[in-house]
Amino acid sequence: MYKQIILKANLTPSQAEIMEFLYLHKNTRASVIAKKINRSRAIVYKELEVLEKLNLVEKYDTKNKVSIFNATHPDNLQELFKQREKELQRDQVLFNKTLPQLISDFKLKHSQPGIKFFEGVKGIEQVLNDTLKTKTTILSYADLEAINKYLPEINKKYAKKREKYGIKKRGIVIDTPFVHKFLKNYFSEITETHLISEKLFPFGSVMQIYDNKISYISLSDENLIGIIIEDQNIATMHRSLFELTWQNTKKFKVTNFN
Fold first, then answer.
1. What is the pLDDT of residues 65-97, one digit of tens each?
2. Is residue 257 part of a domain?
3. pTM for this structure?
């Protein structure tokens, strides 16, 4: 009844069977153990040597040169669990270091970009916050009026975090009276903005390009949807298209601000 728990201490099935038997019986010969757990004597002797080294079993030699075995206190088994926990922690650290390269190789071999979908206000917040980990300038297309309508508080928190971390952004936004008023209060030394015609290029969404990622946010009364695509080729293509658009749009100039 204890075997399944004992196994979790990183013991082999035969070692767990031996320990279960010894916890419930004392002063036992290897031949008796072998018979009771239905294992060969050779295996039992070999496993008893290992268990003795782990301080889980004690061996006594009688006058007849017959070895007698007893289990040590179960607290000694607890030490194995502590060791296993430390090993798992080390393995987790190693795995976390390896994971980015593993993901990269996986995508390369499977020829597919990494795509994540998000829904609702909390999901959109996750999409925005992902850009705060960027090592490159954020390139953004944005409908500021839609952002102010659907995500006013989240956008304020996001903007403050970006300011705090000193993350630069170049944004292309729709040219409307609202945007002119909004940007006067939003001006930042780490943000540069260009304006694009609302009539020629209407969009009710947000797209951000950063590192090797593209994020999309769709804002409407029906749905709030976010998507993050991680793929170097796609990011490079969109970055090139952004630069072309940037060159053909006018810079927003702030006047009458403190």
1. 889 999 999 889 888 888 888 888 999 999 988
2. no
3. 0.56
DSSP string, 96-157: HHHHHHHHHHHHHHHT--EEEEEEHHHHHHHHHHHGGG-SS-EEEEE-HHHHHHH-HHHHHH
Task: State pLDDT tens for residues 203-238.
Answer: 778 999 999 999 999 988 888 899 999 988 999 999
CB atoms within 10 A of CB 199: 7
CB 183 within 8 A of CB 193: yes
Q: Is 121 exposed, middle or buried (0-12, 13-18, 19+ CB in 10 A)?
A: exposed
- Contact assessment for residue 19 and residue 11, using Cβ atoms and an 8 Å cutoff: yes
Nearest 10 degrees: CA dihedral of 180, 222, 207, 109? 180
Nearest to 19 by CA among 71, 67, 55: 71
Same domain for 226 and 130, yes or no, is: yes
User: Domain containing 25: what range?
Assistant: 3-77
Greatest distance between any 2 Cα atoms in the chain:
103
Q: Is residue 93 part of a domain?
A: no
| Total number of domains in the chain | 2
Claim to verify: residue 127 and residue 187 sit in the same structural domain:
yes
**Host H or E run for residue 20:** helix 13-24
Q: Strand 213-219 relative to strand 205-210: parallel, antiparallel, unpaired?
A: antiparallel
